[in-house]
Design goal:
750 residues, alpha/beta, Alpha-Beta Plaits, TIM Barrel, 3 domains, 8-stranded mixed beta barrel, 5-stranded mixed sheet, elongated, binds ligand C2E, binds calcium ion
C-alpha cells in the first residue's frame, strides 16, 4: 500500500495536489485564534482584578488559589504572541508578537528561578507586591505557581520552536505544558496536601487554551495528527491513552475519598501515587505518539493515494481534462435527459466533437516525449478555453473530445472551427515555433441517425484526416460505411503485401526545363485491389502509416523500384535516369530505411548515386531521420524535399538539411499563376534554393501558363501532367529510349 502511494507521490505533476492536501491538514488558524483570545482575555481579567482590587470578579471560589499577576501577565504576553498571523499582517505586528513571547519567556524564567533564591526579588518586581504579600499572609500561597510558570515556559519554547520549523519538538513542548496542568488538576481533585494551593483556575484556563492553540497550530507530523489517525494502531493508541487517563482520574477520586481497598492501604500522602500515575501517563503518551505517528503517515499516504487514484480515474493526469470513461459517463447521463426541440439546423441536441492533432507523432519523436507532453498540455488549455462550459476530455494520445449536451449543429460546427483555429496558433517548444493542425469530427445527434456519438465523431474525424487534415467534418451515416471499408482495406493491405502483383509502381518523368531532358523518374505506388480496383496511393499510404505497415510496404515498393532500375540498366546500360523513391517518415522512425536500401542496391549491384530519396518536411522534425539522411548523402544518395511549402515551412532550416533538391508543391504553382504575390514568393524561394545549391523542381505543372511562369522564375525542372502522367514501366521505356520529352502531347503514351 505504501509502495503504491509513494510511487504516486513521486510523480512531479502531482506536486501541487500533494501540497494542497498537506495544506488541508493544517487546521491551525481557528484554534490559534480561539486559544490566544481565551488566554489573553483570562490574563487581562486577572490583571484587571488585581488592579482594581475587585477580588470576586477574578476569584471563582474563595477557597481556590488566585492566579499570580505575574503569571497572568505572562499569559497575556504569550496570548498576544500566539495570535494567528492573519491578524498581525504587518511586519511591525509580527515583530511585536515575537517580542511579547521573548519577554514572556524572560519573565517566566525569572519567576521560575527566583523563588529558589528567595521570593523577595520577585515580589519587588511585581507591580502588585502588596496584594501578593496579603495573599501570602492569608496562607493562600501559590505552591503550584511554579508549575504554572513551567507550563507557560514550555509553551513559550514550543512557540519559538514552531518559528524554527521544528513541529515535533514544538508539539512536545505544548503537550508537556498540558501534561503539567493535567497533573495539577488531578492532584487538586485528589486533595493531596502537596497540591494544596494548587494551580488557579484562571491560570489553568489561560495556559490550557494557549497550549491547545499551539498544539493545533503545529499539526504537521505531530501527535495531535497521530491521535487522529484512523488506522488500527491509531485506534489502539487512543484506547490506551483513554484507559490510562481514566485510570488516573479514578485513582484521584479514590485518593480524595480515601477509599482503602482491603489489603492495599493507600499511602499517607498520595503525591507519590499521582507522580507514578503521571509517569505512566507520560509513557503511554510517548508510546501513543510513536506508534500512531507511523500509522498516521500511512493513513495520510493512503488518503492521498485514494484521492489521486480517484482523480486519475476521472481526470487525465497530464492535462487535467476529463478521461474517456468520465466523458462516456457524462454522455450517457446527458443523453438520458436531452430531447431535441426546434427544427432544422436550429434543433438542439447532443453533439460530440473529436479533435485529433495531425502529425503529432513527429513532434513527439523530434522533441522527445517531455516536450510532446508540454505541447499537449498547451493544446488542452486552448481547447478548454474554446469549449467554455462544455466538458473537454483527453481520450488518449493526441485525441481530445468536447461534448455538448444541448447545441445546434451550426453551433457545433462553429465550435469545431474555433478549436482548429485555436490549435493553429504556433506553439513554442524549446525556442522553436511549431505549427500544428488538427482534424475534427463532429457528430450531432440530429444527424447521426442513431449511431453512437463517439463512434460517429470518430468516423467523421477519420474522413477529415483522409481529406488531408486541418479541417472539420460533420458525420453523415455513409461515413460509417466508409470507415468500415477503411478497416477492411487495412486487412486487405496485409494480404496485398504478401501477394505478388497487387502492388506496383508507376513512374513519372521529371523533366529539365532547359532542354526537356528526362532528369529522373519518380516511382509512385499503385494498388490494384482485387475487388475494389485501384486505390489512391495517398489513401493506402495513410492506412499503412496508421496501422504500422509502412515499413513493410516501403520495403516492398523499394524492392520493386530497385528491381526495375536494375532491369532498365541491364537493358540499356547508362540509360536509367535518377530514380526518385518516396519515403515516409514512419520508415525512419520504425525502421532503418537507408540500410535497407543500401542492402537492396548491393544485391543488384547498383550505385546509390542513381537514387534520390524523396521525403516531406515532417521527416526533418525527427533528429534520427536527419542523421539517417546525412548518412544517405555521404553514401551518395540524393535527397529531395517533397511538397515543399505546405508543411512546417522549414525555410530557415534549409541550409542545415542534407538536401540536393526541393520539389515545390503543386499548390504553389496553382496559386502563383493566380496571384502576383504568390508568384513573387515562388521566385524568391527558387532563388534561395539556388543560393544553397539545390535543384528546384516544380510539381504538378498542368498548363502552359504555369510552365511559362516556372521558366520565368528560373526553376530547374518540372514534373506534371503537361509533360507526362505517371505510367507503367513498359510505357516509360519508350520515353527513356528517346531521352527527352517533345512538345507533342506525350502524355498519350501513358
Ligand atoms: P507526391 O510524392 O507529391 O507525388 C506526386 C503526386 O502528384 C502523384 O500523385 C502524381 O501522380 C501527382 N501529379 C503529378 N503531376 C501532376 C499534375 O500535373 N497534376 C496533378 N493534379 N497531380 C500530379 P499520386 O501518384 O496519386 O501520389 C500521391 C501521393 O502518395 C504522393 O505524392 C506521395 O506522397 C504518396 N506516395 C505515392 N507513392 C508513394 C510511395 O512509394 N511511398 C510513399 N511513402 N508515398 C508514396
Ligand atoms: Ca514525391
Ligand atoms: Ca510532391
Amino acid at each position: 500500500m505504501e509502495r503504491v502511494s509513494t510511487r504516486i507521490l513521486k510523480l512531479p505533476r502531482f506536486g501541487a495536489e500533494v501540497l494542497s492536501i498537506d495544506r488541508a491538514f493544517k487546521s491551525g488558524p481557528l484554534f490559534r485564534l480561539v486559544g490566544a483570545a481565551v488566554g489573553t482575555l483570562v490574563g487581562m481579567l486577572v490583571l484587571a482584578g488585581y488592579a482594581v482590587h475587585f477580588e470576586p470578579a477574578w476569584r471563582l471560589r474563595p477557597d481556590l488559589p488566585a492566579t499570580h499577576p505575574y503569571t497572568a501577565l505572562c499569559i497575556v504576553l504569550l496570548g498576544l504572541g500566539l495570535l494567528p498571523r492573519a491578524l498581525r499582517s504587518g511586519m511591525g505586528w509580527r515583530r511585536a508578537a515575537r517580542g511579547a513571547i521573548v519577554l514572556a519567556i524572560v519573565l517566566l524564567l525569572i519567576r521560575v528561578t527566583v523563588p529558589l533564591s528567595g521570593a523577595r526579588l520577585l515580589d519587588a518586581m511585581t507591580p502588585f507586591a502588596k496584594t501578593v504579600a496579603a495573599e501570602r499572609a492569608a496562607g493562600k500561597t501559590l505552591t503550584m505557581g511554579i508549575a504554572a510558570s513551567w507550563a507557560l515556559l514550555l509553551l513559550g519554547f514550543g512557540e519559538v520552536l514552531r518559528w524554527a520549523r521544528r513541529p515535533v519538538l514544538s508539539q512536545v513542548f505544548a503537550a508537556s505544558a498540558l501534561g503539567l496542568l493535567f497533573m495539577a488538576v488531578t492532584g487538586y481533585l485528589a486533595s493531596l496536601r502537596s497540591f494544596h494551593g494548587t494551580i488557579a483556575p484562571a491560570t489553568l484556563l489561560g495556559t490550557g487554551s494557549l497550549a491547545v492553540a499551539l498544539l493545533f497550530a503545529t499539526p504537521r507530523h505531530g501527535f495531535m495528527r497521530a491521535l487522529t489517525a484512523s488506522s488500527a494502531p491509531g485506534r489502539l493508541a487512543r484506547v490506551l491513552l483513554g484507559c490510562s487517563t481514566a485510570f488516573m482520574l479514578a485513582m484521584g477520586w479514590v485518593m480524595s475519598r480515601r477509599i482503602d481497598a482491603p489489603g492495599i492501604p493507600l499511602p499517607a500522602d498520595g503525591a507519590l501515587l499521582v507522580y507514578q500515575t503521571a509517569i505512566i501517563l507520560a509513557l503511554t503518551w510517548a508510546i501513543v505518539t510513536v506508534i500512531t505517528m507511523r500509522a498516521d503517515q500511512l493513513d495520510r499516504y493512503r488518503g492521498l493515494a485514494e484521492r489521486l487514484l480517484e482523480r486519475t480515474a476521472t481526470r487525465d493526469a497530464l492535462t487535467g481534462l476529463l478521461t474517456r470513461n468520465q466523458l462516456t459517463r457524462l454522455r450517457s447521463a446527458g443523453s438520458a435527459g436531452s430531447a431535441g426541440n426546434g427544427g432544422g439546423s436550429q434543433r438542439q441536441a447532443a453533439a460530440n466533437l473529436l479533435i485529433d492533432l495531425d502529425r503529432f507523432r513527429t513532434v513527439n519523436e523530434a522533441f522527445g516525449p517531455a516536450e510532446g507532453d508540454r505541447l499537449l498540455v498547451e493544446a488542452a488549455r486552448r481547447l478548454r478555453r474554446v469549449a467554455g462550459d462544455q466538458p473537454v476530455a483527453r481520450l488518449g494520445g493526441d485525441e481530445f473530445a468536447i461534448y455538448c449536451a444541448r447545441t445546434t449543429l451550426a453551433e457545433a460546427e462553429r465550435l469545431g472551427a474555433a478549436a482548429i483555429q485555436a490549435l493553429a496558433t504556433p506553439f513554442d517548444i524549446r525556442g522553436r515555433r511549431f505549427r500544428l493542425t488538427a482534424s475534427v469530427g463532429i457528430a450531432h445527434a440530429e444527424r447521426s441517425a442513431g449511431a453512437d456519438l463517439q463512434q460517429a465523431a470518430d468516423d467523421a474525424m477519420h474522413v477529415a484526416k483522409d481529406l488531408g487534415g486541418s479541417r472539420s467534418v460533420v458525420f453523415a451515416p455513409e461515413m460509417h460505411e466508409m470507415r468500415k471499408l477503411q478497416i477492411e482495406l487495412e486487412q486487405d493491405l496485409h494480404e496485398a503485401l504478401r501477394r505478388e502483383g497487387e502492388l506496383s509502381l508507376h513512374y513519372q518523368p521529371v523533366v529539365r526545363v532547359k532542354d526537356h531532358q528526362i532528369l529522373a523518374v519518380e516511382a509512385l505506388a499503385r494498388w490494384e485491389h482485387p475487388r475494389l480496383g485501384p486505390i489512391a496511393p495517398d489513401r493506402f499510404i495513410r492506412i499503412a502509416e496508421a496501422s504500422g505497415l509502412m515499413v513493410a510496404l516501403g520495403n516492398k515498393l523499394m524492392q520493386i523500384a530497385v528491381r526495375q532500375a536494375a532491369a532498365w540498366e541491364a537493358d540499356r546500360p547508362g540509360s536509367c535516369p535518377l530514380m526518385n523513391i518516396n519515403v515516409s517518415s514512419a520508415q525512419f522512425v520504425d525502421g532503418d530505411v537507408v540500410s535497407d536500401l543500401v542492402d537492396l542496391l548491393r544485391q543488384h549491384s547498383l550505385s546509390p548515386d542513381r537514387f534520390c530519396i524523396e521525403i516531406t518536411e515532417s521527416v526533418f522534425a525527427t533528429e534520427p531521420a536527419v542523421r539517417a539522411l546525412e548518412r544517405a548523402r555521404r553514401l551518395g544518395f540524393r535527397v529531395a524535399m517533397d511538397d515543399f511549402g505546405v508543411g512546417y515551412s522549414t525555410l530557415s532550416q534549409l541550409p542545415r538539411l542534407p538536401l540536393t533538391s526541393v520539389k515545390l508543391d503543386r499548390s504553389f504553382i496553382v496559386n502563383a499563376t493566380e496571384s502576383e504575390g504568390d508568384a513573387a514568393i515562388f521566385g524568391a524561394i527558387t532563388q534561395l534554393a539556388h543560393a544553397l545549391d539545390l535543384v528546384v523542381i516544380a510539381e504538378g505543372v498542368e498548363t502552359k501558363p504555369q510552365l511559362d511562369l516556372i521558366v520565368a522564375c528560373g526553376c530547374d525542372a518540372v514534373q506534371g501532367y503537361l509533360f507526362a502522367r505517371p505510367m507503367r514501366p513498359e510505357a516509360l521505356k519508350v520515353w527513356l529510349e528517346r531521352g527527352y520529352v517533345g512538345d507533342a502531347s506525350p502524355s498519350q503514351l501513358a
